[in-house]
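@channel sequence for tomorrow's demo:
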Amino acid sequence: MTTTFPSAAPASVLHSLNRVSSELDALLAGLRPYSESDGALRRVAQTLAEAVARAPDVAIACILLNQIGGRYSVRHCVDTAILACVLARAMGEAPAAVLTVAAAALTMNVGMMRQIETLQNKATLSGDERALVHRHPSESAQLLRSAGVGDEEWLSYVLQHHENDDGSGYPDGRREGDIAFNAKLIRMADRYCACVSARNYRRSMLPPLALGTLDADAGNDPVLTKLFAQQLGPFPPGTLVRLANGDIGAVAGRSADRVLLVHALRGADGAKLSQLRRIDQADFAIETALHEDEAQLRFSMTAVWGAVAAL
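structure tokens (generated this afternoon):
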């Protein structure tokens, strides 16, 4: 007689990412010279990198569906690290390199964490506020070094994550060839996540427009711009959409043959649904992306992605 046991439920990516946000908040708040924080920050970055590797679609959806808790200043770093990890893995970077990218993205703004909560809701900054923003990559790298971070790649990514290929970035106005590739990757992930995040003076930008904003930026690396388009596309997982037949749902990911799948949650007649739609079928082509208030959906991520997205 053979005894079988139920397989364990997959570890929740959403749970892991919320733990990362909570632990990162405490670590960054306590970052001080001689605090020897390198190991603790790496462990948090490792948790995030493992969560992203476990279910990249769920991790991306957490960004677009605003499922990561905590203060904006910390959530934004977690969001950026998620996206940077997804893209670094897509490029075939080794796990150690992905971990460094994650650590740099999580700590990129440590030099102005207290001010971000105020600045992120201002449409226009004063001269002093702009100067603070322009200094923060240098101050972040210096604080990390004094707190025990000795990884020069990690520090260089933090220092350079606002530099542009055309020399228009800061703090040093570096140009193409003098900017670390992964710093540029973090910069683009940073900007994309800022675009799809709401402010008190504007709505969040829908993913197709956010991708178009990156594509139109002359300061971006064209290789990375192409990579973003290939890996995210205009409708990444978690995008709320209306289909040609009137169904409304969330983009779930791709099928084995790379066709985009939408989990329809409400029909055109208002009836509740739970059906996967392939957008290569005419009735189920994506008509448009929707803001949350337009979609008017209330659903748990487990309804779309199962236990790996449980809270």
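heads up for whoever presents: Residues 1-6 have pLDDT under 50 and may be disordered.
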